[in-house]
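Late entry, written up from scratch paper. The run itself happened at the end of the previous shift, but nothing got recorded in the book at the time, so transcribing now.
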Amino acid sequence: MPADCPPPSRIVMTTHGKVQGRRLVHAGDRQVDAFQGIPFAAPPIGELRFKKPQPPAPWAGVRETKKFAPRCIQVPFPGLLEDELHGEMSEDCLYLNVFTPCWEAPEEGFPVMVFIHGGAFVFGEASSYGDIGICENIASRGIVFVTIQYRLGYLGFLSTECGQRKCGSAASQSAFDNSKVDTVVHFTLYLVDRAGERVCNMKRRWYHISSSTSDLFHKAICMAGTAECRSATRSCSSMAAQSIRKAACLGVTEFANTQELLDKLRQIPAEKFAVSLFEAPTRGDRIDFGANFIIKETCPCLDGDFLPESLDALRAKATPKPLLNGVTKEEGLFLMPGRRSTLEGLQETLQYVTLDCTKQDAMKKELCSCFVGDAKPEDPACIRAQAGMVADSIFVAGHLELCRKTVAIQTEPIYLYVFEHFTGPSILGAFNPNGWDDSVNDLSVPWKPITKENPALNYVFTSNEPMMSNDLFEGRTAAFIEIHRRHK
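Output as recorded:
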């Protein structure tokens, strides 16, 4: 059989019908099946646009699940052949992929890891993370790995503020998209972990604290983003006002009530609801990637339904669970493409890291004094200081705040990490998903959980020997949080 034509998988019964995929690892005693493109909700099109996900229709016979489903409607990245890289886009996008070991499961079942892709709530897809790599490096270790998709931009986050229960507002339907996953695929598996990366790890924390999903899983992994990040949520009134502005831009300015507004918006092509991170809201066609990460055009809101209370109130009620979270050393560089080594470039950085502050000028002055010092704009030290401020503003401060707030109310362990170097699959090998076992711990330096006394205690993965650090980025992030608190 040709290498690019794997044999069919076994046939598996899901909640809504039988599926058959491909056996992507089909040699040896640790073979792995891949089921790609399993619907976990009815297509959110027509009357279902802007509504909570509904169950998919059952199907007769065996459904072929051998390739990724279309990705969600989004704005392609400039200069990339997105369709060739990640496939076509469609409003009909609520599908998941399951990569599962073929050998007999242990008595307690295989652990399950659910990966929610990142993308600032406006871009991304499951196909970006591949299939054969997941099978060879994760599923072959005895882990069931699930990747999912959810609605993006206004299709996922349009809000009318009046509340989902009352009038059918979209509010945070993307969050409900993800919460429906558990109702679809039953492979007789018992342990559920969640992992992911970048901004949509903010979602991981919602699922940990939301009463709708808190008990569906027992561990969480947040990489480069949490619900404590400044850009994770906005008020319902703010998101509703933004949605009304969007409707006006699409030509919908007159409507008697919310239902009429939604009915008119359902007549508009789906691609019109995509959102770009590369369109600056106030600077013409100037790309301001970092600013758009802080002041997002669309993002979740405290809708009174999926998130019925404040994050702090929900956290206090949520089921405590072990948490692994962290960032890379240079998160800020991801958001600084084309940043100029000039005084104007520095001012642009200061402008968007203080966008949500009421005392912007005072905060800019203190940030410069604390982080830039005497460095000239063209000095590498100045660029590095800017990257640090951007990283803290958008990602790192949220992680430290998550650690501080969570360790104060639970005894389950919380681990914080910093990646300074890509170390390959050996890190995954250091963990037994079914529970800790010293015999399989190949970390050369023990990883200690954070404490109430030191929520910044972190494990640093370097190109040399890993190490424990008492300070997160030598105290930089804590200083940023304190400056922001004084001027917000």
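Residues 380-407 form the longest helix (28 residues).
(Scratch paper discarded after transcription.)
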